[in-house]
Every structure is written in C-alpha cells, then in structure tokens.
Amino acid sequence: MNISLDIQNLHKLYLSKELKPRELCEALQNQANAIDNPNIWIHRLSPEELDPYLVRLESADPASLPLYGIPFAIKDNIDLAGVPTTAACAAYAYTPEKSSPVVEKLIQAGAIPIGKTNLDQFATGLVGVRSPYGVPRNPLAPDRVPGGSSSGSAVALSESLVSFSLGTDTAGSGRVPAAFNKLWGVKPSKGRLSTSGVVPACRTLDCVSIFALNAADSQAVLKVAEGFDSSDAYSLPTADQSLPVSKKIGVPKPEQLMFFGDAGYEAAWSLALLELESKGWEIETIDFEPFLQAARLLYEGPWVSERTAVLQDFLASNADDFFPATRTIIGGGLNNTACDAFSASYKLAALRRESESVWQGLAAIVTPTAGGFPTLADLAADPIGPNSQLGYYTNFMNLLDLCAVATPAGETESGLPFGITWIAPRDTDKALIEIADKGPRALEADNDTLSILLFGAHMQGLPLNAQILELGGKFVAQVDTAAQYKMIYLPEPAPHRPGIIRVGEGGSSIAAEEWRLPKASLGALLASIQQPLGLGQIELSDGRKVHGFLCEAAAAQSAQDISATGGWRGFLAQA
User: Is the preceding peptide bond at 495 cis, omega within 30 degrees of 0?
Assistant: First the structure.
C-alpha cells in the first residue's frame, strides 16, 4: 500500500471510506515482514492481538476520534497492557495489566499500537546499538548508527511502518534518533506527559517523547498524550506559554561548536544557518557555556546514580544479563556519594540562573542535534566515546528544564541526514513546534489570529466546516471544557446545533475543537451566528480560557439536555 502515513492524509482516507484501519494494519504487517530490518521490534502485535483495537474502531465514527486508525509504535520501556515490557533485557521483563497513561490516552483517541520497539538497554545510550535484541538498521545510512536509545521507534517510523512513535528522552534519546532518521522529535517539558508505566532511567529527568513525520502530526499527538497524572509524582499541570515576538534565534559561538572531526556535519550546519536566515530569522551568537557545563553534569556527575538507584538490586542479582556497556555505566553510579549529589545540585542551580540571561530577546536557541554521525565500526572500536560525543548538544536539556524539538535540516554533501534542535523554556512546547515549522511569521501571525472553540456543525467533517475553512480557519486541537457546562439541543433555527451553557454546579466537560481564526474574519463569523448564541469566554479542562459561542440561559428552560453524550459528535452518534 503506497500511501502517506501522515495523520491528515489517513484521516481524509478514513472519512471518505477509501481506507479502513484493518486494511491499513494488514498492509503494514505485510510491509514489516517484507523489509530486511529484523531488529526494529522486540514484540510486534499479531493479528489476534491487534483485533480488539480494530473491532472497537469498526463501530466508531472516524470523525469522532482525533487519532482514529492511526498506527503507532511504543518504545519497549513503556507499558502496553498484556504485552511484556523488557527495556531490552529479557530477564527484567514483566507483563503489565494496564497501559501507561500516555499509551492509554492515545488508544482512547483511536490510535492503534503496532508493537514494542527495540532500544538501548534500560534507555542507556544515544547510539542505538546497546541491545541484546540486535541493532535496528538505519534505513537512510545502513553503515551508521540508528541513534538511541529510542532506536526502534525512530526506525519503525523511518521505514513507514507507523505514523508516529513514542520514545523516551532523558539525555537526548528522542532527538538524536530523529536527526539520524529525518524525523521530527519532540522532547516535551518535564512532567507534561506522564511517566507512569515507564521504566525509569533518571526519574527526575525522564520524558516520554514523540517521533513524527511533520509539525502537524507532532502537535496532534502531543495534544492527546499530554495531561496531568496524579499517580506520577513528577507530573505537572499542562500549561501553554507563548514565545517572545522576535526574529532573533541564538546559536552557540563558533568556538563553542563541536563536530568531532565530521566535516560533513560542520558544512551542513553552515548551510542550515543560511536556510534559517532565508526564512526570516536573525542569527545571534550566544554564550553556550552554561549549557555545556550543565550537560557535563549528567554523566560526569552523580545523576548517573539515578539510573543505578532503579536497577541496583537487579544489577546485584543479574549482572550477566546487562549489555556490557550498559553494565559499566550503571555500575559506575555506585561510586557517587550524597555529598557529591548535593554539590552537583548546587552547581546546577547556579548554571540554571546563569543561563537565564541568555534568553533575553530570543525566540529560541538552535543547535545541531548531533555534532557527528558515528558509523557502526566506530562503536565497535569504542563503545563509550562516540556515545558521549552525541550528548554534547542534548544532555543539558532536562537538567535545565527546557523543551525542545528536533527537525530535519537537509543533508551532508555525501547525502547523510542532518538535523537541528530548537530549544526554549518549559511550557512553550506548542509554540516552539510552530516556529520550527513556519519561521518567525508564526509569531507575528499569532497577533492577527484568535482561538475559537467550535462545538457543532462547524467542526471538522461536519456540514458547516467549509465556512470556517473559507474564513481562513486553522485547526489546532481537540479539547474539552472544564466540568462547568451543560450542552443543550437547539433544533431551531436550522441547522440543528448545540448550545453551551455555564452552570454553577452539576456541570459536565464538553468536547470541542479549537481553531485559530484571522481576527479580520471574526465579523463574518459572528454575522452567521444566530440567537440564542453569542461570543464569550469558555474555560477548558487545562485551565485556559478561550473564546467560544455560549448560549443564553433562557434557551435551556425547554431544551433537551444532551450533556451526557459528551459532545456534539456523541449526540449525533446516538441520534
């Protein structure tokens, strides 16, 4: 089946009934069997294991689920109910009864788990070769490393076996594989995605990451996967912050850049800067030293002991089950003391404060994702050195509580993939993806648009959606209101529609779509809206307040309360 697996394309095919999820999964199974890349998966779901997910979708409306029929891969340190979690160590394996919250959210949104992917054992590595399950072959450079630790997740997407995949990113594992496989790699703000049901690497630093084909897919998956989880002690409420309206991006001083003898990557970086300038960015050099010093703390300081703390007992009883390089790293954490940990935490706090001044006037910082692209032979000769080099531009990220997105940025002269990473303060995740995709105009355009909530026939795939598209509307995400509203049925005037009313108590959370609409088009939209609806502010489940159409309370006196359906699509499905 030769079709693009990006989410928007699959969504169109499902809505037009040109494709069904079962057909897609059968084609992907055949493709996975046909390609010569046997080490991608630790456990690929059989047709029997996939069947319950497909049966559920067969009775659902494609328009009712934001990720309806979208196939995805899961790094095998993240739980999928009923499937062993190995972290690439068979002796460590366990079979969870329930999926991790992130995986469960994706499945509930309609996504289909295709399998559990290979990784650097216990997510310890940036190369993707430290696994007893073999090395996934990099489809774009077979003699080079696939990148790790989320190697299988990146390669599964690069081989067109899924539409997106989940990784984890403690030190760069969601960004380095993205660069080496020409993918988008989202390293969210710490705590934005739950890490419950994830085998810890460094519990205070771990993030579940997302590999995607483009910016729109990155945003769509992030929106579904994020959210506060009270069972995760490190989870934080979702917050969205804007970026400064600036055309300036910071890059390290030339003397602070490292390419480790890789002339191809050094030249590709220079070309990437020219490309950024052509898109309207102004390049400003910054002092990158606080970030580099923080990066060195991750493996040269006591944070490696966090990895040891998780696996200390298993290391004592099962030392021979560790991959050799992994055993060396994990065992080294036994040498640090509590005094070392406190001293390093003081140093990190000072570096964090020092780094704060660097951000002034910048929309983001941009670096190479990796300074070089090691060969498999390089790793065979030196299992540790090249891996350490790959962390040069990545290791500081979670220590300094930043968010990042890795994007493809062309190729070297010899045709090897090259990528850059966009970096910004925490909670600017969505704005960062936007500017990485659209350039500085995304920041400027934000001043000329307004978020609008749609609850009825103006939503995607419904009769009046064409009006929103004609007005220049851009879909943002599926959202839910706070549990302070009720939805009533308004059959007149035609077309029939819902009315949203704020209530003091006994309210429900109502499903909606968030769109960005040019402010210049707002008058035309308002002119098409009839009583008893009017524009007001509506509170969302994440605490944001967004403009939307509220209903006059008087209309509810004789109207049917349809709040229990959860939203207009739910009501239509029951009608």
Answer: yes
| Catalytic residue (choose from 64, 149, 163, 508) | 149
Neighbours of 511 (CB within 10 A): 19
Catalytic (active site) residue 173: yes
- What is the rounded CA–CA span in Å between residue 168 and residue 187? 8
Predicted confidence at residue 288, as pLDDT, reads 98
pTM of the entire predicted model: 0.80
CB burial readout 376-394, b (16+ within 10 A) else e: bebbeeebeebbebbbbbb
Mean pLDDT per 10-residue segment, the chain (575 residues):
91 95 97 94 98 96 95 98 98 98 98 98 96 98 98 98 98 97 98 97 96 97 97 94 90 98 97 96 97 91 86 91 89 89 94 93 96 97 95 97 98 97 96 95 74 90 88 83 90 81 88 89 85 87 83 84 91 85
114-136 per-residue burial string, b: 16 or more CB within 10 A, e: under 16: bbbbbbbbbbbbbbbbbbebebb
- Cα separation of 13 and 71, whole Å? 14
Residues 555, 56: Cα–Cα separation, whole Å: 36
- Look up residue 521 and give its two tokens: 């088009």
pLDDT, averaged across the chain: 93
- Does the N-terminal peptide bond of residue 149 adopt cis geometry, omega within 30 degrees of 0? yes
Rounded Cα gap, residues 84 and 72, in angstroms: 17
Residue with tokens 């989870």: 235
The set of residues, in sequence order, having a beta carbon less than 8 Å from that of 86 and lying 6+ positions away, is 42, 43, 76, 92, 93, 116
| DSSP H helices in 318-357 | 324-332, 338-356
436-450 core/surface letters (b: 16 or more CB in 10 A; e: else)? bbebbebbeebeebe
Q: Is 75 a catalytic residue?
A: yes
What contacts 33, CB < 8 A, 6 or more positions away?
Answer: none
φ/ψ bin of 440: left (φ > 0), alpha (ψ from -120 to 50), beta (otherwise): alpha
Q: Are strands 282-286 and 364-368 parallel, antiparallel or unpaired?
A: unpaired
pLDDT at position 386 is 95
Q: Which of 64, 75, 151, 187 is catalytic?
A: 75
Summary count for the chain: helices (H), strands (E): 19, 19
343 an active-site residue?
A: no
Q: What is the pLDDT of residues 255-305, one digit of tens each?
A: 999 999 999 999 999 999 999 999 999 999 999 999 999 999 988 778 888
Q: Which among 300, 261, 258, 256 is positioned nearest to 378, based on CA atoms? A: 261
- The one catalytic residue in 150, 151, 173, 235 is 173
Quick: pLDDT tens for 335-370: 889 999 999 999 999 999 999 989 988 999 999 999
- Work out the end-to-end distance of the chain between its first and last CA atoms, rounded to an integer number of angstroms: 36
